[in-house]
Structures are given as structure tokens and as C-alpha cells.
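User: Just a sanity check before I run the rest of the batch. Below are the C-alpha cells for the first item. I only need the designed sequence back.
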């Protein structure tokens, strides 16, 4: 009897998962580990090394991963994005990010501006397996966020054009404003430098404040995400008054009196 040939191109073995399932599993793990060897992929999927090599080649051809000797790395790793956009597991901003990402539903259109906390929110959204069925559309002006999200085949990523700031990877300027005029975002996750009941929501850079204000106007629901130390403070450039914010997600170190003043403006405040 001739033995089965599970590695024939396009012909999976009896128990071998189909191509789309394999790719989804590989990308899910790659997004977390950032690197994956042929051996690890073979053990993960329960398929031969030849099948994994073929999958790696196809993922690299579609720019969903970057091929290396013996494996692949996430495309975001190949770009060597700054470590400041990665948070430790016990960082309060990680709790904020998890809480924010949990509110996203399949099929929704969500937005992100740049920043450490919003980058973490986007990462948690990308890791939610239950969003795969209906998919998610994301709109962002942050290059690092777009680079991570485009790795997921079930996430449609729209990157707002403009001039990039190396400090934050945010795009801003007239081109970004033009694109935003024609977009409608259901939920915007807005990272800020400061938020207070009296002074509103603000940041340090004038150009970022301008494009962030445009994103607020394009959103049905504005969710500010930021560490407790930012609550009650003010920064140079105002993005919007606090009454334009629907929800604030922060940690339990936020000034309780300021939190109460913000709630009195009709803003839902979630402490994590």
C-alpha cells in the first residue's frame, strides 16, 4: 500500500487542519511570542515541518510575517519598534487596556490615536479570538498600531495619512484631517497626557491635539484611557472638553475627588 502524502501541495492529511485554520493559529501565537520556529509551529499545529515551512513562506509573501532562518518573526518585530510601547504585565495600563479591549464587539469600527496605553488596547483587541467571526475595522493615525493590527487577517486596518512624529509614531497634518472628514468611528480609544473636569482632555503637542480633536468629532463614543496620575492634570494643548468624553478608563490611583467631578459631568468612569 502506498503511504499517504500529507505534505502534497494543497492536500492536507486526514487530521491536518486546513490552511486558513493553520494561518490563524500561527498568527495568534506569533502575535504573543513575536518569534516562531518551524519546530514550534509543527508541534503547535500537529503537522509536518514541510507544511509549516510552506505556511511560513505564504505568510511572508503576504507580508503577514517576516521570514528568518528556521522560522518567522512578527512583522512588527522586524521594524524594531521602541520598547516603550510594551508594558509589563503588572503595569496599571495593562489593566486599563484589558478593560477597554473587552468592550469591543465583532463587526464594530473602532479608532485609536497613538500612545503606550492605546497601543496596549489595540494589542489586546488583536488577541481576542472571539472577534474573529465578525471581524473588526480599525482606524488609527499611529504607525506602530497599524503595523501590529495588519498582522491579523480578520482586522481591517485603515491608517490615516499625514506627517509622522518619531516620538509617538502618530500621523498628523492636513491629509489626516481630510481622511477623517469622511470616516465614522463607533468607538474611539483616546490616549491623553491629562484629563480634568475643568481643563478638559489635553496633550503636550499641538499637532497631535489637532488631529485627536478631529478623531473625537468623527467618533460616536469617546473612551479616554490613561493612568490615574493623569487624572486631575492639565497639559499644553486641549483636545476637547471633558463633556465630550463618554467614558474614562483609569486605575484606582486616580484622585477620587477629581473622579467624582468628572462623573458629575456625565462621564462614566471605570476604575481598574
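Assistant: Here's the designed sequence for the first item:
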Amino acid at each position: 500500500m502506498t503511504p499517504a502524502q500529507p505534505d502534497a501541495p494543497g492536500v492536507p492529511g486526514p487530521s491536518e487542519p486546513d490552511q486558513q485554520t493553520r494561518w490563524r493559529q500561527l498568527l495568534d501565537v506569533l502575535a504573543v511570542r513575536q518569534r516562531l520556529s518551524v519546530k514550534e509551529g509543527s508541534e503547535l499545529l500537529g503537522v509536518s515541518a514541510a507544511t509549516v515551512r510552506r505556511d511560513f513562506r505564504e505568510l511572508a509573501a503576504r507580508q503577514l510575517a517576516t521570514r528568518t532562518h528556521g522560522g518567522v518573526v512578527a512583522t512588527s518585530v522586524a521594524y524594531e519598534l521602541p520598547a516603550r510601547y510594551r508594558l509589563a504585565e503588572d503595569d496599571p495600563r495593562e489593566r486599563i487596556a484589558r478593560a477597554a479591549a473587552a468592550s469591543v464587539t465583532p463587526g464594530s469600527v473602532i479608532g485609536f490615536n497613538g500612545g503606550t496605553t492605546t497601543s496596549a488596547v489595540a494589542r489586546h483587541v488583536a488577541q481576542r479570538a472571539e472577534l474573529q467571526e465578525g471581524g473588526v475595522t480599525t482606524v488609527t493615525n499611529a504607525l506602530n498600531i497599524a503595523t501590529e493590527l495588519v498582522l491579523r487577517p480578520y482586522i481591517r486596518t485603515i491608517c490615516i495619512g499625514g506627517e509622522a512624529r518619531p516620538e509617538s509614531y502618530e500621523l498628523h497634518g492636513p491629509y489626516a484631517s481630510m481622511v477623517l472628514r469622511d470616516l465614522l468611528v463607533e468607538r474611539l480609544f483616546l490616549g491623553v497626557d491629562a484629563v480634568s473636569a475643568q481643563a478638559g482632555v489635553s496633550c503636550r503637542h499641538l499637532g497631535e491635539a489637532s488631529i485627536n480633536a478631529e478623531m473625537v468629532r468623527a467618533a460616536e463614543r469617546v473612551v479616554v484611557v490613561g493612568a490615574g496620575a493623569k487624572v486631575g492634570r492639565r497639559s499644553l494643548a486641549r483636545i476637547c472638553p471633558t463633556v465630550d468624553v463618554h467614558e474614562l478608563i483609569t486605575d484606582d490611583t486616580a484622585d477620587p475627588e477629581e473622579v467624582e467631578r468628572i462623573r458629575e459631568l456625565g462621564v462614566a468612569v471605570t476604575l481598574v
